[in-house]
Amino acid sequence: MRVKNASRLRYQSAQSACHASASVHRQPVTHVWLQPSLNKDYRIKHNQSIGNSQQGASTLLLALFVIAILVTATIAILLGHQLGYQRGYHALKTETEQATINSKEATNELKDLRISHKVLTNQVATAKQELTISLANLDDLRQKQQALKVDNRQTSQLNDLYAEVIAEQGGMPLQVLGAKIDPLPENAFEYGFDVGMLSEDGLAKSLKVTLTLQDKDNFVDVPLDPARYAIEGIVRIRGRFVMPNGFKPLQVKLSLEAGDEQIEQLYDWKLGNMVDSMPLSLMDLPEVDQSPIEP
Fold this sequence. Notes:
By secondary structure, the chain is of the alpha+beta class. About 55% of the residues lie in helices and about 25% in strands. It has a domain at about 175-270: C2 domain (Immunoglobulin-like), CATH 2.60.40.150. Strands 3, 4, 5, 7 and 8 form a 5-stranded antiparallel beta sheet that branches. Strands 1-2-6 form a 3-stranded antiparallel beta sheet. Helix 1 packs antiparallel against helix 2. It comes from Psychrobacter saeujeotis.
């Protein structure tokens, strides 16, 4: 419609300007002015169509780009959320497991502490009982010790009385009250002699002791430590010696000398039965027995 209106306007202008030539050139003028208009409109429409197409493509590309960004962001958010969730879950799971382990260890330690507490409580109770028993035994020992002191004083007093009576009656001559020789390990022997003497004046005298081992042809003096004693009543002579290798005594001679008195006592060498409880070494032997020797 726009093309036809423009042709009519142009045609009327040409007819009013030159009427004579209008009839001759009507058709060419119309053709000349109509063709450029049509081309121009076509180009305008074509350009508009191309522009609209380009604008639509740009819009589509922009929309696709935005959608891609949104999809990528959504995927990234989902992946980040998934990874964060997994990491958090594993971390929480690890912490929970560690807390469970720590709780079990704490429970076991608490049980051990309770057991240790019970053991210590029992030990304390036992220690208290032992302490009570020890104190009771100590008190009993003190009482017995006190009783022994009293008995010793009484015995000493009685012995002094007997010594005075014996001294007034002329004293007690030098004599052997008991003798023994016992075998020991490693070819050793233990000797013991109880000797009694009380002089007329009641004073202590120096006692010299000699011990000799004899066979048919030889004799061996046994070294005594000590070899001298102060005798005022009863003296207990004790010691040990080692028999010389290859020497087999037949007799033992004990020589005593105190003041103006001298005596010699011969004993046959006899070995008794083997003692089952005898130690294997001299180092394991106890101290020499100081108990009185039975006659």
